[in-house]
## 1
Amino acid sequence: GDVAVLVPAAGAGVRLGPGRPKALRLLAGEPLLVHAVRRLAAAGSVHTIVVAAPAAEVDAVRELLAPVAPVTVVPGGAERQASVAAALAAVPPGPEIVLVHDAARALTPPELVEAVAAAVRAGRHAVIPVLPVVDTIKEVGAEEVVLGTVDRSALRAVQTPQGFRRSVLTAAHAAAGGALTDDAGLVEKQGVPVFCVPGSEYALKITRPFDLALAEHLLANAG
Ligand code: CTP
Ligand code: MG
């Protein structure tokens, strides 16, 4: 395996509602993070996994993941970007391909992990999985007045794992200014081209209660 995966898992999960940090919330009886790490470990290219856990849960997360896969667990930060940076700093020398994958995308298939890694291995500096946008998108101004309709054909919804040549991600994080919601955004700011590969509906980000219910249903019907 030539791939390290950073797993930001330090978020609170405010949009999921009151409860434990989101990565530790249960899906089919197991924490979201366990589902996510199990699928990452099932991807043959993955050599190293570094999890950024809620600071108060580092020991608990170590114990939780020990039977699942060999992982390094570090305390995350207040923003997702800080959590990714903390995990990146803990990657040992070796892997030249680094993926960043949200713990909240708990049902992401190992095949998608391999597809992103393969595109980086083939020479892309930065690779993101995307899906077409299915809804009509409108720009809205003050008092919910529609300003216009956006051309949907040029838009993509972006998932993780996002894959990078290690040096590219390291440089982008070192230069990072304002906080962004994804790592490819930092790389774009460096002027590095970012390429899209087809994403997966199973890589949905569990954000709201509806998403958790959907994920329960998908697992229950997976056979
Ligand atoms: N994340 C993180 N560190 C943070 C914030 C987020 O590692 N300070 C992680 C989350 O654990 C999640 C991923 O980044 O796996 C995507 O973030 P999101 O879906 O927004 O999760 P939360 O921030 O936990 O949710 P919310 O925004 O609803 O509080
Ligand atoms: Mg968040």
## 2
Amino acid sequence: LKDRLKDPSLLKTASFVDGGWLDSSDFFEVRNPADRSLVAKVADVGAGGAHRAVDAAARAFASWKQVSVYERARLVRRWHDLIVEHAADLGAIITAEMGKPLKEARGEVVYGAGFVSWSAEEAMRVHGETLSTPFPGSRGWTLRQPVGVVACITPWNFPSAMITRKCAPALAAGCTVVVKPAPETPLSALALAELAKRAGFPAGVFNVICGEAETLGPVMTKADAVRMIGFTGSTEVGKLLMRQAADGVKRVSLELGGNAPFLIMDDADVEAAADGVMASKFRAAGQTCVSANRIIAQEGVADALIKALRVRVEKLKVGSGFEERTDIGPLIHDEAVERVAALVDDARERGAKIITGGQSLAGKMGGAFYAPTLIEGGSDVSLSMASNEIFGPVASVYRAADEAEMIRLANDTRYGLAAYLYTRDVGRVHRMSEALEFGMVGVNAPMVGSPATPFGGMKESGIGREGGKWGVEEFTELKFVLLGGV
Ligand code: ADP
């Protein structure tokens, strides 16, 4: 990997604590899922390292919260500029540790950097209000103050953007941060730490610790100094963290699993809908929480949609993310391939039609590859892949009769993150987007995330929103001050 980087000093293997690099004699391996080769050995700093990071963040908070928001925003902005300047290297690091194609990896870096510049600007607009009070001779007003030390636990599918999306608004709002990245993708997090160091954040304001989740996690969720847990990952782990946070009544912001329905109505532009499915389903080889999980087509367009999808899926090129022409990289590891294969086997056994793909390429290609797959599930929504997040390059299409049935099917899940709707009927746009129990609805649009807009879920998909003014407000406390005797 070093040879691919213009600036090899972005490759770090120690944790970043209190403004310096913290090493350890314990380590874990990071492997490239495309060929299982060793990318790096990363220090595991254990519970001791986690305590040091939390203590450093708590000390730094005392002064960081007093720094003017103009100065905080200036440093956050500098971090943004450095991230953009090194986007190619950061992209290569993502591809090496998690496998997504280089063009997507660079796209992620730029997308993630968008949250950094947005946060720098938005934090300057955080303000209180004056309120009317019922008591004669009194005045009342509100303050928005930083929450305190924030512990961020992030996943491997967006190793860079999930960190910037949480940390930039937290830092700009005046919080200090301890990040624990996924063990699969620590190098992206540590490269961001190196750039934060160069940007000039004071020691302890931004910390990244690597090691075993079961050891570091409880230190982060239990420490008195930590006032908020920001998490993106599985619903199962999110629930565990919420339980741990409950003891200290810590604030939680959770971005959890999804089971996105992608609804295509009879009146939709089928070609545009097929393009939308491809963008939503096959980005990061289907390993995103907003990936279309259940493609539900109204009877009148189902055949045309399947035909249009087949042509597109069969054109996808599978390979290493470093190859220019690759559309679909490997999954994160071999167990992920086995999980996806089991879901497809379940569908096959229940009589679903495999139109193309449907097999693991892990043996043949020497890495964690699965063939891009199109499945026709008919009206059988009891398939395991209809109720579980597929997290792989497998598109499954179901059929439904009318609007009411489609809404019922779409909402028949414990998740509520993203939903997609393709229709050209403006009445339908309103009726259906209002009826869908999801935090984000893309109408004739397959991507719903941006720095300016709220990202987050309903039901078991999470609590809180990232992005926009809401993403900055999450990291503030609303305080009321009443002044008497005026
Ligand atoms: P996935 O199954 O996609 O890897 P996870 O929810 O397991 O999703 O992982 C998301 C993040 O949560 C990662 O950083 C992972 O290390 C972390 N994590 C997993 N288990 C725990 C735990 N028990 N305590 C704290 N963090 C955890």
